[in-house]
Amino acid sequence: MKFSEGRRSHLAHIVVDTLAKEGLWKVEDGRERWVLNDIKEALDHEAEADVRIDGLVRKKIASLSRNVPLGSPEWDVLYRKYYEEESRKGRAGGG
């Protein structure tokens, strides 16, 4: 899923505000814009990974010898299982 610039900005501000409220991190004056941009890039990276993994999982399900109808309970279970597997592979392999 690709976020709009407004959504990316909103989410980045939530992250910075939450870290500051929890006392986990203080952004130095003048650096907030850089930090916000880094957070936005991380959000984009995760969204791109999600799209890539979704495509891999859908192909994997479609390649099964039996037909698993989209939206069926079996399809949903397989999707979650394969998504988790591919996600772990991606994290272990550096993304």
Index terms:
95 residues; mainly alpha; 72% helix
Helix-strand blueprint:
Elements: H1 5-21, H2 32-62, H3 73-92
How would you sum up this structure, described in words?
- With 95 residues, this protein is an all-alpha fold.
- The protein has helices spanning 5-21, 32-62, 73-92.
- Helix 1 packs across helix 2 (32-62) and helix 2 packs across helix 3.
Structural class: mainly alpha
Evaluate the radius of gyration: 18 Å
Number of helices: 3
Q: What does the main sheet amount to? A: none
Helical proportion, percent range? over 70%
Percentage beta strand: under 5%
Low-pLDDT residue intervals, each spanning 5 or more residues = none
Kindly state the mean pLDDT as a whole number?
A: 90
Question: How do the helices and strands follow one another from N- to C-terminus?
Answer: HHH
From the spread of the alpha carbons, the general shape counts as elongated
The tally of beta strands, per DSSP, is 0
What's the end-to-end separation, in Å?
A: 17 Å
Explain briefly what this protein structure is.
With 95 residues, the chain is mostly helical. Helices cover 72% and strands 0% of the residues.
